[in-house]
Amino acid sequence: MAKCAICDKGAHFGNHVSHSHRKTPKMWKSNVKSVRVKTESGATERMYVCTSCLRSGKVERA
């Protein structure tokens, strides 16, 4: 599972609880995209970035 290179956000784990209160394992996947990003040196690099970091402007796309 991919993690965000900026904020290190990844998958979250917990339990799905039914109406009868039975618990089964569940995984929530974060919305992580593979994006070409400009680095500090001016070069372009492909990395995994979550959509919340893309929208907030923490990353400049190439």
Oligomeric state as shown: single chain
The rough form would be described as rod-shaped
Helix/strand/pairing category:
mainly beta
SS summary, helix count: 1
Quick synopsis:
The protein has 62 residues and is mostly beta strands.
Keywords:
two-stranded antiparallel sheet; Ribosomal Protein L24e, Chain: T; 62 residues; mainly beta
Description:
This protein is mainly β. The chain has one domain (12-56): Roll (Ribosomal Protein L24e, Chain: T), CATH 2.30.170.40. The protein is built from one helix and four strands, in the order E-E-E-E-H. It has one helix at 51-56, and strands at 12-17, 23-28, 32-38, 44-50. A hairpin with a 5-residue loop joins strand 3 (32-38) and strand 4 (44-50). The longest helix has 6 residues, at 51-56. The mean pLDDT is 94. Keywords: Ribonucleoprotein, Ribosomal protein.
SSE topology:
Elements: E1 12-17, E2 23-28, E3 32-38, E4 44-50, H1 51-56
Antiparallel strand pairs: 1-2, 3-4
Family: Belongs to the bacterial ribosomal protein bL28 family.
Keywords: Ribonucleoprotein, Ribosomal protein
GO cellular component, one term: ribosome
